[in-house]
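A note from the maintainers: we've had questions about how concatenated examples are separated. There is no special marker in the raw files; a new sequence line simply starts the next protein. For clarity in this README we add a label.
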Amino acid sequence: MSLIPNQLPAGLEVYKRTPDFTPENLPAALQSQHSTKAGVWGLLHVLEGQVIYRLAPPNTESTIASAGETIAILPEIVHWVEFVTPGRFYVEFYRAAATVS
């Protein structure tokens, strides 16, 4: 199973969105190893340019996304991002949808 899935699983809802990031304002924290919390998925949206998403060892997967593409981010997987070509992206955060009893 890939640790970089093509899409988010069903049953999630968005609850937070970052501002747009560019090479000029990309936080150092996103350029170094970090992860989401348990149960939190991310969806990185590339608006312009290209971004590379890399998993931290012992994982070796990486993927490049171009404008119009997204990258799904699994909960608790240590990773970092870098621009391949200058551009702009943002990240949405998802968690399990609230159920009504």
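[label: protein 2]
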Amino acid sequence: MVKARKYVVKNYFEGYPKREDYEIVEYELPPLKNGEVLVKVEWVSVDPYMRAYNSRKTLPYDQSGFQVGLVEESKDPRYPVGSRIISHSGWCDYCIIKTFNSSETIWDPYKLPKLQGLSNSLAIGALGMPGATAYFGFLEVCKPKAGETVVVSGAAGAVGSLVGQIAKIKGCKVIGFAGSDDKVKWLEEIGFDRAINYKTADIAAALKEAAPNGVDCYFDNVGGEVSNSVISQMNTGGRISVCGAISSYNGPSGATGNIPLMTVLYKQLLIQGIYVDRWFDRLDELIKDGTEWIKSGKLQPREHITEGFENIFDAFVGMLKGDNYGKAVVKL
């Protein structure tokens, strides 16, 4: 028998999650059945959606999340011992993964893609779910054209930092909003034409200065005042991809401010929410382009790495508070 540990959520979060909202449970894993593999988890992802979805869950529940794992025992010939698997099996150190028609995960488990020598952690970052969100959510919804002006909120995060760089690859002018001067500096170092500290700037005035001819595409990760200011300065026919509303996740309600609907009407704006599952069957497109861009230096994914199973919670809360630059991951 293999002993495993996992994080179980006991309470609905009030404000930022607290350590007492979680319990680390140790238990024995049962013998494998056909179509299952025993996995030693190597990398775990922490993401904003884990906070947003808490109120929709039935307590208690195992904390979900993407992970990279090493197969230590297998009853599926597609996943031999020594191979690696990507799954949505959550915050644990060992687990059994059902590899056939699993209904317990957002995405079906799949083999670690060939990453041409890049870190395996990128499979749950720039070349995984966050990368697919940025790649497809921006290109498929905003349909950017060279020379257009693109604004990204939450631009120093896992998704936003990729969107801005992809926009530059496509020949756009890119403006990013972030929450510190150090993050502003980093965004400009990786190619953003302009970055704005939304905590210290007059948001509307700073955006008007940075984009005097208006905004064509907006990739929204935060909602709230930033988004309302950007929408108010969109050009006719502008496209908005709504990825998240992290500015409201830890507040007392889900309100994100009053969207300027008359601007949406007059400017004939397209606003579309994105849910990355719809593009899962096209993940190979991201892997191909993303790997080439990273190898060539056109795309510079940054990882904020925390080490240790016991520190997953701290990495999660730190990410929610904006401590991370790029993708927050935990190495077990």
